[in-house]
Amino acid sequence: MNDWIIRLIEQGGYWGIAFLMALENIIPPIPAELIMGIGGIAVERGTMNFWPLLIAGTIGSTLGNYAWFLLGDRFGYARLQPLVTRWGRWLTMEWEDVERATSIFLRHGQWVVFALRFSPLLRTMISLPAGLAHMTHRRFLVYTFAGAALWNTLLIHSGRLVARYMAGVMDLLGYTIFGLTGLMVVWYVWRVITWKPRG
Is the pLDDT of residue 109 over 90? Predict the structure, then answer.
């Protein structure tokens, strides 16, 4: 099981990693922790190299977040609110969530874009209010890239440690990865089915 999953990541190569990481930040529920963690296992096995993996994963993360930033920056509050209201079910969020994230951004400043790269739930959400607040594109890209690079480094090394020190349970790892991915998909489908506007 684990070899099949790892080979799937390896065959996609660095372009595949970049694509998955971009998708992870645009459409749930693909967890970056699994993508980069498996990449770290591939590095330990010698089928991938650390620096190209880190660069590809970080570029993918940055581009995925930049898509949300551009949406906020180009559409603004007036045009974005009707979209979120109409399609909120598929995004599993509503306008109140956007307002809450905007409040966090305004309260803590632009450094929050860097800091929230380490939060599984908020790292993508904060990109939208950053765009709505018209944070400069250059600063957003720098902060996002730096935060994503640091987080991806930790994930890659975690994958390497798993491959190095837990060789005896690698079979269990494959089932765990498969199970966690399935749970994320089920969670997203459940959120879509049961989602109701607070209003």
Answer: no
